[in-house]
Design a protein that fits this description.
This protein is mainly beta. It has one helix spanning 2-29; strands at residues 39-43, 49-54, 63-64, 67-68, 76-81, 87-95, 99-107, 112-121, 127-136, 145-154, 157-163, 169-175, 181-186, 192-195. The chain has a domain at 1-33.
């Protein structure tokens, strides 16, 4: 009896391995090696999202401090989360009737910290791309930050704008679309005090 049981179990194991091999082989050799999905959630061991890849219809709302907020627009993209489930950045691809807007962002705990973006309109020749750097706002208010540095190109005008803690531009270094360079400084109220 023991010998018959061992033979039966051995046969079942061999057949299972053969069946799994056939299934894997047929999947690898099939004409379609794509995975189609409207959203993919990558979770940690606790079940919290750490990365979400989604189309624009299923993109999750921003989560800051455990609270859900409404997005200004619903892009397709990839959202990154910290271990508490709060949004910490992502890649957004927005395509609507007026414009294409693509961005890569990394966040502080409560708001955007650094962003790279590219925009071009569909109905005119307007375009803009840049790097945005923000200070962290210590009030704890969701979405609050202080924009400090902008490195931009906009319709052929390239500029570096450095702002104070009140978001008032204090120094602007610019080369316009005709190649004319300027450096300008501003006072605390935003009035020009020096230009070269």
């Amino acid at each position: 009896m023991k010998k018959s049981f061992k033979v039966l179990m051995g046969t079942l194991i061999v057949l299972n391995v053969a069946l799994l091999t056939i299934i894997v082989y047929s999947q690898l050799c099939s004409s379609s090696s794509f995975i189609d999905s409207e959203r993919i959630n990558i979770k940690d061991k606790s079940g919290s999202n750490r990365v979400v890849i989604s189309n624009m219809d299923n993109i999750p709302p921003p989560i800051i401090g455990g609270k859900h907020f409404k997005r200004a627009v619903n892009p397709a993209g990839i959202i990154f989360y910290d271990k508490n489930g709060d949004e910490r950045g992502g890649i957004a691809i927005t395509d609507n009737q007026v414009t294409n807007f693509n961005a890569l962002a990394f966040d502080y705990q409560n708001a955007d910290a650094v962003g790279l973006f590219a925009q071009d309109n569909k109905e005119d020749n307007y375009f803009k791309a840049g790097l945005i750097i923000n200070d962290k706002d210590h009030s704890g208010k969701a979405g609050a930050n202080t924009n400090r540095i902008n490195l931009l190109t906009e319709n052929g005008n390239a500029s570096l704008v450095i702002k104070d803690h009140n978001e008032i531009p204090r120094i602007i270094i610019k080369v316009d679309s005709l190649g004319q360079p300027t450096i300008e400084m501003f006072d605390l109220e935003g009035n020009s005090t020096w230009k070269q």
